[in-house]
């Protein structure tokens, strides 16, 4: 089934202990759609400026991503500049230039309005609600958010959460949104705000899936080299939602757990190189192989009787 994503496309400048990159392809919708395209058709809604390279559009088209919802406006593309320390767990934002993204107002093409799976990227919650006003009876709506919206646009965010089935959020944001320090209590508080499920991303410590009756913990895939964690969370969401959209309409505990693992698998590829370099070259057999490795890492037998 088709998957709709609304979010940002950006040109990033990155610095990590392993090097620097200037004006590379980035943005939440870019990481998400590239990842989800491994699983099925993706429709992308975003805005770019006059300076956005045609080669990047060719890459997205080459992934089979539908760009009818992508608009090019007069001005410069959204730009973000960040720096990571040796721990690579959080970026220090050095510069943000919203440019054409500042006036972004998502308008869905008619062909997108009946898409069954919808992902609302990290944009203003009022824009997220505006997207939901345009879609017709989606099967599942997922959203992402961030500390900036939690602090500055909380009323609008709470209204949006009442219309969302699943929320992706990191552990610090979950604590901020809920007012609870304990992550389990934070998840329960967020579930009471509207979503029927919440995924709490915990970086190198993996992710947790909560609904009203179940909890599933998924570790991060262990890697010997991590170069750039930018976009890992959006890649995780792309793998997760791509798995759901390709499940034949079935969303049960088994499918959700598979989606969690696939999200971790895809994120593990992203961090191995800068920007989308690794996602550009990864092949489906590699994805299957890493998923199988993940299964071995997390499999164990029943305990059996304990000795006296």
TrEMBL record:
Annotated Gene Ontology MF terms?
kinase activity
Answer whether the UniProt record assigns the keyword Kinase to this protein.
yes
**Ranges of residues in domain Carbohydrate kinase PfkB:** 36-275
Q: Which Pfam families match?
A: PfkB
Looking up InterPro entries in the UniProt record yields: Carboh/pur_kinase_PfkB_CS, PfkB_dom, Ribokinase-like
Please tell me one Gene Ontology term that the record gives under cellular component: cytosol
Entry superkingdom: Bacteria
Which UniProt key words apply to this protein?
Kinase, Transferase
Q: Specify the protein name.
A: Sugar kinase
- Taxonomic placement: Bacteria, Pseudomonadati, Myxococcota, Myxococcia, Myxococcales
């Amino acid at each position: 089934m088709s998957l709709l994503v609304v979010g940002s496309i950006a040109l990033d400048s990155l610095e990590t202990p392993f090097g620097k990159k200037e004006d590379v392809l980035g943005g939440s919708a870019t990481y998400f759609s590239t990842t989800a395209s491994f699983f099925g058709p993706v429709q992308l809604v975003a805005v770019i400026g006059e300076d956005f390279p045609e080669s990047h559009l060719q890459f997205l088209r080459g992934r089979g991503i539908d760009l009818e919802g992508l608009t090019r406006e007069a001005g410069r593309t959204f730009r973000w500049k960040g720096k990571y320390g040796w721990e690579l767990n959080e970026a220090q934002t050095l510069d943000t230039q919203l440019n054409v993204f500042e006036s972004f107002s998502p308008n869905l093409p008619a062909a997108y309005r009946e898409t069954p799976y919808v992902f609302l990227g990290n944009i203003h919650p009022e824009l997220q609600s505006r997207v939901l006003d345009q879609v017709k009876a989606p099967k599942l709506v997922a959203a992402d958010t961030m500390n900036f919206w939690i602090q500055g646009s909380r009323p609008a965010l709470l209204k949006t959460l009442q219309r969302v089935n699943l929320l992706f959020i990191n552990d610090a944001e979950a604590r901020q949104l809920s007012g609870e320090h304990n992550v389990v209590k934070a998840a329960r508080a967020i579930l009471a705000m509207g979503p029927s499920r919440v995924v709490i991303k915990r970086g190198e410590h993996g992710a947790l899936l909560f609904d009203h009756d179940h909890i599933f913990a998924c570790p991060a895939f262990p890697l010997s080299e991590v170069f750039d964690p930018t976009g890992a969370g959006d890649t995780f969401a792309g793998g997760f939602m791509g798995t759901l959209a390709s499940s034949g309409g079935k969303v049960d505990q088994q499918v959700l757990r598979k989606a969690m693992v696939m999200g971790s698998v895809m994120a593990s590829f992203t961090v191995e190189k800068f920007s989308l370099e690794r996602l550009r070259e990864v092949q489906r057999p590699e994805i299957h192989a890493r998923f199988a490795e993940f299964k071995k890492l997390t499999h164990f037998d029943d305990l059996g009787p304990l000795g006296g």
